[in-house]
Design a protein that fits this description.
299 residues; 11-stranded mixed sheet; Spore Coat Polysaccharide Biosynthesis Protein SpsA, Chain A
Length: 299
């Protein structure tokens, strides 16, 4: 059974200022998602599931169906505010959806095989998809999951600070803890994170999560249980978000599951800020020159 690729594309792209999930970055207007799906098909994924807002569905279909038809199976699922589906009867006011771990739950009815989760607006590189397929087909169990660990030095923006899930691993290469650092940047030649107005250094090769996780469908029930607790505990906090690292943290802490850190030395790039776009376009152009991708992705 081929694994499934779950793409988180319901975000509002507040910092970027437009709907970057379907913005063009390749020489013929290819989106970052196009490159991820291209790599996923090449690596051996059998289905792609888009997690989107319902009002974007026709937009997404018109962009992706002509390219993907006959190449990979596609599904579209919607992240929404309905809490009754989780057995929560209370009305809880929200300004935006509940975050990435809540988004994963949108896929629980259509994903029946081992799967991985990625962000729509991050460029991960073929190496990560290839290693993830190997893990999902050979090593994934209902208590052994994974996360692709990027070197933090290869994930920064020149235009401002970024948030990164900094991973602490044990000697066997498994996740011990993951800490969300919300202010990470380069100062002179040193990578630092800021906390309570103090700066702390981070080594270039420190593994970080770029939201590239490998699971089996057993994680849906575990996540649903966690989400119910989270939603009720945070009902007075309309901006509280239920993030995927919380799943990792909780399952590791209570010894329900382990998370293998899959190392990659690929250069990650993404568009946190509008100013990142020319860099991403230049990076893709270089990969095309190097033969990693054809000039026209889908021909």
């Amino acid at each position: 059974m081929k694994p499934t690729l779950l793409i988180l594309a319901a975000g509002m792209a507040s910092r970027y200022g437009s709907m970057k999930q379907i913005d063009g970055f390749g020489p013929n207007g290819e989106t970052i998602i196009d490159y991820s799906i291209y790599d996923a098909i090449k690596a051996g994924f059998g289905k792609v599931v888009f997690i989107i807002k319902e009002e974007f569905v026709e937009n997404f279909k018109s962009i992706f169906e002509p390219k993907l038809n006959g190449r990979i199976e596609t599904e579209y699922v919607f992240q929404d505010f309905d809490l009754k589906q989780f057995g929560i009867e209370e009305e809880i006011y929200r300004e935006k959806p509940w975050g990435t771990a809540h988004a994963i739950l949108s896929g629980r009815k259509v994903v029946k095989e081992p799967f991985c989760v990625i962000n729509a607006d991050d460029f991960y590189g073929y190496d990560s998809f290839s290693k993830m397929v190997k893990f999902l087909t050979e090593d994934a169990t209902d208590s052994n999951y994974s996360i692709v660990g990027y070197q933090i030095g290869k994930t920064l923006s020149d235009f401002g600070s970024v948030s990164r899930g900094v991973c602490k691993t044990n000697e066997g290469g498994y996740l011990e803890e993951i800490t969300e650092r919300t202010q990470v940047y380069k100062k002179d030649d040193v990578i630092v994170y800021e906390e309570t107005q103090l700066e702390y250094p981070l080594a270039f090769e420190t593994p970080v999560s770029m939201n590239f996780w490998g699971f089996t469908p057993a994680v849906f029930k575990l996540t649903e249980d966690m989400f119910k607790v989270f939603a009720l505990e945070n009902k007075q906090k309309p901006k509280a978000e239920f993030f995927i690292p919380l799943i990792g943290e909780t399952l590791v802490k209570n010894e329900t599951a382990t998370f293998k850190i899959i190392p990659t030395d690929s250069q990650w790039f993404g568009v946190t800020y509008k100013e990142d776009k020319p860099f991403v376009q230049a990076s893709i152009d270089q990969l095309i020159k190097d033969g990693a991708y054809p000039t026209r992705l889908w021909e």
